[in-house]
Structures are given as C-alpha cells and as structure tokens.
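dude i think i finally got it to work??
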Amino acid sequence: MAAQVAKHSLPSLQLPIMEQFLSLQGEGRNTGQVAYFIRLAGCDVGCVWCDVKDSWDAEKHPLRSVDELVQDALRSGSPNIVITGGEPSLYDLTELSKQLRAAGLQVWLETAGVHPLRGEFDWICLSPKKFKAPLPECLSVANEFKVVVYHPSDLSWALGFLDHLHQDCLLYVQPEWDMRHRMTPHLLRYLQENPRWTLSLQTHKYLDIP
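look at this
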C-alpha cells in the first residue's frame, strides 16, 4: 500500500496507466454515451468486491505523459473522456484535465473522493466506499452520488453523507454486479419509498463490452 500512496506525489505530467479504451459509459447519469476511458493505476481504498483489482498497485503499470494521453483521447473520436481508476484522487489531474478541456473534450471523473480533488472537471461522479470514507470537500462538489450496494448496510452508511452534497446533486443506487440478483429487489423497494433516487445498472456488463 505504501508504494501506491507514494504515487500521490508524482509530477502532474506523468501518470500511471492501467488501460485506455473506447466504450460506452455504462453507469449513472451518462449511461449510454460514447466515452473514452483512462484508467489510472493505484488505489488505497481496497474494496473487497472490486472488479479491477489489477489497478491497485501503481508500480505494476507504466507511466505515460499527459501529452500522450491527450493525443490518444483525441484519436478515439469520443467527445467524452472518463478518468477513472484505481482511485484517481491520488493524483494531481490539473494538467491532464486542463489539456483535455482545451482540446474541446468533456472530462468526467469517477472517484471515491478520499483525497482532495485537483483538476478541472465537467462532471464528477462520487461513489463512496465503506472501506475509506469520502472527504466532505469532495462530496460538496459532486454532480452525482452513486452508491454501490453489496449489502444493505452500504446504503444506510452512505445516507450519512447526504448533508454534504449540494441540492442539485443526482442520487443513484447501483447493485454490485455479483450481488445484483439479491440486491436489486431490495433497491427497487427503496426507490419506491425514496423517489429522489434513481437506479443505476452496469449496462456495459449486460452488453458484454469493456
């Protein structure tokens, strides 16, 4: 874990990258839109049900320059760029996000909000995890609050952060993929009683795409 946290101080012009790919955004508010994903390596949250555990150790993945990442994003043809992880709040994303936006691209961030956010983002999806609580300052700037539910206690825990969200923040509940058959009925009942919330599904997994 120490190696992962050390990456927090990387120069902003180089970042550890697990993978990059063109697909559809499968979750939350922007579901169904074409997006180019930049998956950063390194995570200090450690969700036991994480489906990209290979991203946790930043030392296992190559460093790439911001210039390379921006050129790759432009070549993808997608107007939407998702910066995800791992846990992207480990890194200073100011230069990457600035250059992507200067190139006319939308920058969407997916984060657990466990470190201060550094960068310029058009959409921030904050997905809180019980393994490491989000910072109030990150919650206050979230456009979307997406709770992944592996057990009903995940939702009840996340409700404690609602007071930190701004009034226009969108609220989503999403069954964890391996528990979807058990958790989806529970979430449907919750939604009927709490209509401010919306159901998010991992549609990319149903479609069998990245």
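DSSP finds seven helices and nine strands in the chain.
im so relieved honestly
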